[in-house]
Amino acid sequence: MQKISDKVINRLTLYHSILTDYLEKNIEYVSSPQIAELLHIDNTQIRKDIALLGYKGKCKVGYKAKDLKLLIEEKLKFKTVKTAFIVGAGNLGMALAKYDNFEAYGFKISALFDNSPLKIGIKLNDKEVFHLNKIPELAKEFNVKIAILTVPRVNAQEVTDFLVKSGIKYIWNFTPCVLNVPKSVQVWHENLIGNFLQFTVNHGVEEN
Questions:
Q1: Which fold does the domain 82-194 belong to in CATH?
Q2: pLDDT values of the chain reduced to their tens digit, one per residue, 208 residues
Q3: Which residues is 111 bridged to in the sheet?
Q4: Residue 148 carries which DSSP code?
Q5: Which residues pair with 189 in a beta bridge?
Q6: How many CA atoms lie within 13 A of 52 on its CB side?
Q7: Is the Cβ–Cβ distance between 201 and 174 less than 8 Å?
Q8: Which CATH number fits domain 6-75: 1.10.10.10, 3.40.50.150, 1.10.600.10, 3.20.20.370?
Q9: Residue 29, C-beta contacts closer than 8 angstroms, at least 6 positions apart
Q10: Backbone torsion region of residue 157, taken as left when φ is above 0, otherwise alpha when ψ lies between -120 and 50, otherwise beta
Q11: Which residue ranges make up each domain of the chain?
């Protein structure tokens, strides 16, 4: 499969959500103008994205929703299970652990980790909270290479260093901290504040 850019992958996941909604409503076909209207993006961009998948719709009819949905799942490897730990069982970490839709995209949260005695042993959606010092043992036992980091900013780098020593190779970083990691470790920064400001500034959100 040719490499798909991050922006295209992001859009494809949005198309997938729309297709899922259409199928739940027993709508068999969806057109690129319909998707464009829902997402407020250019119709031509949608056709280009879908063309990258090697799929063509029917003239004046559109794309068969079931076929396109399955093709997106195949290309983005939804069926390939990626197991991860949540590191930091605060409000955000617990909210992510309760989110049921991850597994539909092949993303499985197997456990949470924290250093608070009040949280260790708690179970959320059958996922137990362990002490941070259990990460090396459990990462090795279950061959987990992905960590979702939701600890406080002041602890982010220290915990990251521990994750790297524990064999974690991929970090989905929800902290407002730019992490220092070796070249062998990849970090995806989930910049919640940056995304919010990008939306409010670019779209002219007014003050209260």
A1: Rossmann fold (3.40.50)
A2: 467 898 999 999 999 999 999 999 999 999 999 999 999 999 999 999 999 998 988 888 899 999 999 999 999 999 899 999 999 999 999 999 999 889 889 999 999 999 999 999 999 888 999 999 999 999 999 999 999 999 999 999 999 999 999 999 999 999 999 999 999 999 999 877 777 777 777 766 776 6
A3: 85
A4: E
A5: 173
A6: 18
A7: no
A8: 1.10.10.10
A9: 57, 58, 61, 62, 63, 64, 65
A10: alpha
A11: 6-75, 82-194
The structure's pTM equals 0.86
φ and ψ of 98, to 5 deg: -85, -10
Tokens 């090795």 identify what position?
140
SS (H, E, C) 3-38: CCCHHHHHHHHHHHHHHHHHHHCCCCEECHHHHHHH
| Fold agreement (6-75, 82-194) | no
The Cα-based distances of 205 to 38, 172, 193, 200, 201 in angstroms read 20, 28, 15, 5, 7
Residues belonging to the chain: 208
**Cα separation, 32 vs 53, whole angstroms:** 14
